[in-house]
Amino acid sequence: MKIPVMEVFGPTIQGEGMVIGRKTMFVRTAGCDFRCSWCDSKFTWDGTAKDDIRMMTAEDIMNELKAVGGDCFDHVTISGGNPALIKGLSSLVTLLHAEGCEVALETQGSKFQDWMTDINQLTLSPKPPSSGMVHNLAVLDSIINQVNKERISLKVVVFDDADYAFARTIHQRYPELKFYLQVGNPYLDETVSNHTEKLLERYEELIDRVMDDHQMNSVFVTPQLHTLLWSNKKGV
Amino acid sequence: MKIPVMEVFGPTIQGEGMVIGRKTMFVRTAGCDFRCSWCDSKFTWDGTAKDDIRMMTAEDIMNELKAVGGDCFDHVTISGGNPALIKGLSSLVTLLHAEGCEVALETQGSKFQDWMTDINQLTLSPKPPSSGMVHNLAVLDSIINQVNKERISLKVVVFDDADYAFARTIHQRYPELKFYLQVGNPYLDETVSNHTEKLLERYEELIDRVMDDHQMNSVFVTPQLHTLLWSNKKGV
């Protein structure tokens, strides 16, 4: 079964979430069921990069990972778009494990696949109101109930007050799961000036808010390290 | 048994290591068996802040944590100095757990204490050559052999080539442990300009180096988030 691949790149660091800082390769799949207003990878679903999509087998992807990353990786992050749309990723996850790699997955949590139970670090990032999307939490419940909780984290991006309220709701719904609040990046223009400074200001505001909130104690508050380093550059 | 306390502050984020981003309180103990050249908390051992040291019981510390942090915490990080010098921390760790808090500890790993087996996140940071210290790895071995490996991480600060070589040695000695390379901060002057930018440049250099090194695959490469945000400010 072939997999629609948009990008294969790395090794680089995972810039966010439960394995922030981890040396990893990225496989970015094409296609998404969401259309988030502030999506930083719109090219995976808006048609602008449709000529870059390649239909690849798990073996094709493994070969490309080795061609790009050499022997400098033992961890692969599958991101999108929404890779959870792709049933055929089962073969890739199996092959990566056979090759000695850990596998992380990034998805909003709108769809379950059997192979999710094999993912080493599963990040579920339900989308807050500012995205323009409405999340079906029953689906999120269903995923969480089927996967080893030690391997899951929740990540909510926060741009504004309504997003913060949403983050609280999610944390209270699943208090036993590792929970990450991630500062939103509204500056998606490649040419934005003082990007790092602006993001750190927003990050500090989010920290201040969480520190004063006794309903948000067992949480992590994180930036996107890659954005602090490389702004909106692709392929890093 | 009284504990020499230098600072109690928070809640803030843990800026580094295995629980980077975690909302936490800090208890900083006084005294250290090391004298690292680039120590960012020299006041804990160089005598300049000796009038700030308070001898406190576990209950005193718990009361102060509540006075400072209110009900806005469920995680406490014990740092130093080297808190592993203090036998009496046993009572604090027990009390924090009884109060429903997780407890993290930061130490170089030069001394074992029985209470280390109760720490939820134990960060051992053997000091590289640029510190001017020589680490007794037999002691580090002994600590690691007595503590649940799931709860340990190793963290090595890297300033230069020799430090990087040391980091490699440590990672190879304990390949089963979570391993963090942390970019060194040589700019300890409060008034340094463009601190964040300079640190991010050094961080990027370290990332580049690790990404090209096939002997450093199963690793994390991290900055100090608090330093990116707040430079060398104390108490955050």
Question: Can you offer a commentary on this structure?
Answer:
Two copies of one chain form a homodimer. Chain A is α/β, with parallel strands linked by helices and 236 residues long. Chain A has a single domain (3-230), classed as Aldolase class I (TIM Barrel), CATH 3.20.20. Chain A contains six helices and nine strands; from the N terminus they run E-E-E-H-E-H-E-E-H-E-H-E-H-E-H. Chain A has a nine-stranded mixed beta sheet with strand order 3-1-2-4-5-6-7-8-9. Chain A is globular, with a radius of gyration of 17 Å. Chain A starts with a strand and ends in a 6-residue tail after the last helix. Chain A binds chain B through residues 10-13, 19-23, 70-75, 180, 196-197, 200, 203-204, 207, 210-214, 216-223, 225, 228-229, and chain B through 10-13, 19-23, 70-75, 180, 196-197, 200, 203-204, 207, 210-214, 216-223, 225, 228-229.
